């Protein structure tokens, strides 16, 4: 896995810059949140850059007005501010009118680990997933981030795209795009258990996978790139080839990807045991960084190894049980 | 100068149409519509608004958003009269076979955006004005906001934004009827001095009698001649329920329905409705 130095936001904004250079109807709106790549955008495409003030409500309905005038807009801020702060504007201005605006948030999960709960994004999937007409994408690396940007202007629609604050290691090859179609992609083949995760947690699950392999437990890993709608056919394919699914997320268990997977399993009669690993309802006001926060929540690599091992033992025990006559 | 006696007849017609629509289904907000009736009649019948009933989504026209969504139905009889949709739709207001809902939305010809929650339409209207500026289209975005709606913080976010970006093609009319659901606005949370607030945010602002066509046209005329790159706020002092004696200035009539006796009285009031300029 090659590590790229690019931040997801720079990859995304650079792609939008290229598109906006050719299409004057593309607008990039920020509520005072920046990116290195945005500096170039502001300098060279100033007419298509809008500072909305630190006024997220204004930013969203403004984008709605632009969309009603045939424009393609991006609204950009840290995840909590571009989602929770202006949630009703997103519901009314974007969701009900189904307008082609991309809500672009930076800082999924505990990205802003040093900032505290005001900056954490541990409920955004649950909230945004509840909206109608929305597509939610959560790219786990640079390749899929670039692809996200590309489809956002090639096929503009009401989308929420969540990015991490930190650079993420590659899981897809340059030019690969199967995640667009599949929504949930098997990244690593395993034996009994497949872990479904995305974003920052992908690398943590990969570390856990390596550790578990040393103990003879070979887990599969799948990337959930498209959180809404969940691609039921892809999930079914994975569910059919494994004995258990485990979701891992840096998000509250309420409404996160574990919930989305569980709902899809129920709705499509996918008869596979499912365990959810995520953040129990709690707001941590602790110093110590992202890894420390993960430890407190039981989603650090050590905990993941232990918890997945437990799932594995449960599964083995169950398989030994005689079939009731 | 538009024909004011004819417009006063329009005022009466609009009130009567709205009253009968509401009485038929017992749904809607009469007093909130009546406080801004002259404003919308002036816009549509006074030669102010450049509308296009045939191509209601065309970019080459002015737009109007009634951001105080509970009064968005004030446009329904006018849009029917001007051919945006058949007049029969007024009979089907809020009925399953009709297109007109209690709160207007963008699926209705002539309506720009969904409304109902306060503090959204104004910002969407600013977005329309911004797009027209960018595309060098010389059309205006008119927005009617309630004075109670000005409690919403989003109004002031956009007020700042619109003056910074010099949206002189944005005109907001504040329907200053001084009543929200529970009380006089100055008893709830003070909104005055309203004009100074808009001026402080970098807007042209003027206060008029919202039921005087003469003053309304003077205000729109000033907007048309203005060249100081500022958006304009017209504070239209108005009477909630204007035209029906027992509803005027009574906050409890916000969404109350009249009984049979009151319906007769209201009809008598409306038949005799006139305005003194």
Structure characteristics:
heterodimer; A: 325 residues; alpha/beta; Rossmann fold; 5-stranded mixed sheet; 13 helices; 12 strands; 19% strand; B: 277 residues; 11 helices; 39% helix
Notes on the structure:
The complex is a heterodimer of chains A (325) and B (277). In chain A, 43% of the residues lie in helices and 19% in strands. Chain A is α/β, with parallel strands linked by helices and 325 residues long. Chain A has two domains: 156 residues, Rossmann fold (3-Layer(aba) Sandwich), CATH 3.40.50.970; 138 residues, Rossmann fold (3-Layer(aba) Sandwich), CATH 3.40.50.920. The longest helix of chain A is centred in the C-terminal third of the chain and has 20 residues. Chain A is globular, with a radius of gyration of 20 Å. The N terminus of chain A is likely disordered. Chain B has a five-stranded parallel beta sheet with strand order 1-2-3-5-4, sandwiched between helices. Chain B is built from eleven helices and five strands, in the order H-H-H-E-H-H-H-E-H-E-H-H-E-H-E-H. Chain B has one domain: Rossmann fold (3-Layer(aba) Sandwich), CATH 3.40.50.970. Helices cover 39% and strands 10% of the residues of chain B. Chain B has 277 residues and is of the alpha/beta class. Classes of the chains: A alpha/beta (325), B alpha/beta (277). Chains A and B meet through helix 3 and helix 5 of A and helix 6 and helix 7 of B.
Report the CATH topology name of the largest domain in chain A. Rossmann fold
What is the domain tally of chain A?
2
According to CATH, the fold-level topology of chain B is Rossmann fold
Oligomer category: heterodimer
CATH class type of chain B? Alpha Beta
Number of helices of chain A: 13
Give the strand order, joined by hyphens, for the main sheet of chain A: 2-1-3-4-6-5-10
